[in-house]
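Holo prediction. Input below; ligand is iron/sulfur cluster.
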Amino acid sequence: MSTVSVEPNVMKPVINEYFSRKLANGKVLVATRHGSWSLLSGEQFDMLDKEELVSDKMLLRELEEKGVVLTEDGVRKIVHSYSSHYFHLADSRPLCIVYLTNKCNLACKYCHSDSCSDSSELSSETMEKIVDFICSMPQKHIALEFQGGETLLRFDMLKKFLKLFDERVKAAGKIVESKVIVSNLTLMNEEIAEFILDNNLGLCTSLDGPKELHDKQRPFLDGRGSYDVIMKWVDYFSVRGRRLSFLPTITSNSLMYDPKLLVDEYMKVGAKCIMFRPVYGVGRSAADYELLMEPEDYFEFWRKALDYMVELSMDGKVFYDRTAQSMLISIFTDRRSDMCMRRPCGAGIAQFAFYLDGSIYACDLGKKNDVFKLGNVMSSSYEDVFLNTIQLRANTSEFQPLCDTCVYGAFCNTCMCKSYARFGKVVPMTPLDFDCKVNKMMFDYIFEKMDDPVYRAVFEMWVRLKT
Ligand code: SF4
Ligand code: SF4
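Structure of the complex:
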C-alpha cells in the first residue's frame, strides 16, 4: 500500500484492489475482494479509475465507507468482512448424508443418483460403522439427512439407524440440528407418517411443477405419473400441521411452461419459497443431453419467475427464490449461507456423504466417484478423511484465475462435481461452465435491479427472512 503526495499535506486517496463490470443499465458495478460494492455512473467510475476522487467529497466518502478507498478504520472492517467469509471453516456444522439403498420405485428422467443401477444395500455392520464415524467427528453440531435411491424402501433400516444414531450421538455429546428424510413420498403409509411425526423428522420431496410437467419428469417404472400420490401425502401432513420441504429440478421440459406456474404450484402446497435448481448433468441426466438447457434459456426462465416473485412480495404475498436469497445474503452481508456458494464450497467440510459400502464422499453429487472419495468408515479415521479433503481441495484449485479477478468473485462459486461430470475435470472450466454463465447473468440482473426502489426493498426484505 503506497500513498502518493500530489502537493504538500494533500495525500491522494489510497485505492484498494477492486473489480468492475459495466451493466446493461449503464451503471458500473465496482466490487472488492471482501465483498463490498458500489454502483457508479460512468463519470464517477472514470474519477475512480483515474484516481481523481479528491474533487468529489461525497463519492470519496462513499468509497471509503465501502472499503474501495482505504482508511485506517476501513482496513480493520475489511479484514473482518473478508475473514467472515471463511467462518464456516471454523464452525462447519456438517451435513451427514446417509444412503440406505440405491434402489428406487420411480424412474425419474434426470435422477442424479442414477438409482436402480446397482442393487447393493446398507448392511447392519456398515450402518454401525457409519454411526461410529459420525460420532468420532470433532464437530459438535451436525445434521443428518437420508437420501437414496428411495429411503422408504428401507423403512426397517431407517428405524434401526435412527435408534442407534440417537443413542450414540447422545453419548458422544453432539447436538443434532436436524434429521431429514428425502423421499419421493410414493411409498408413504400411515405407519411411516406417524413415525415421522412422532420423531419430529423433517421430510423433503421433489416437486417439479404442475401435474403434467411433474408426471412427465417423475414417472413410476410403469410410466404412470407420481403427482397425485404426492399430493395426497402433502394434504395428510398439512392437516397435521406439518409443512414439507420441496425441491424442483428445472430441465428443458420445464422451459415449455410459464415459470409463474411453478411458483403458483409451490404456493398451492403451502411453501414459502422455491429453490430454482437447474438439472445437474450428473447421474442419469449426464447421459441425456435432451434435458440440459442453454444457460441463456435457463436464465430467462429464472428472470421471469424472479420478477413474478418480486411482484407477489410487493403485494404482501411474500415468496422468494432461495438461490436469489443466498446471492442477496452474500451481497448485503458477510454471511455465506449456501454451502455451494462458498469458497471453498461445503464438499468435505460442511458435507459428508456415507455410501452403502461405507465409502465417504465429499459431496452427494460426487458419490460413487473415486475422485471425490475421502475414505471408508471400515478403515479410515476422521484424520485420514480430513487430510484427503485437503488433498482434494489442493487439486481443485480453489482460487481459479477467472473467478479470482471476477467482479462477482466474492459472492460466487462453481461446483467441482458438476464440472467433473461435464468436462472430466475438477477445476471448473470457467467461462465455459454452465453455472458460471448463469451466475454471471443472475448477478448482473440483481445488481441492475438494485437501482429500482421496488426491487431493492423486496431484495432487502428477502435477506431478512429465515433461510
Ligand atoms: S461439490 Fe458442488 S454440490 Fe457439492 S457442496 Fe460443492 S458446490 Fe455444492
Ligand atoms: S464462476 Fe464465473 S461468475 Fe462466478 S466468480 Fe467465477 S468467473 Fe465470476
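Residues 1-8 have pLDDT under 50 and may be disordered. That is the main takeaway for now.
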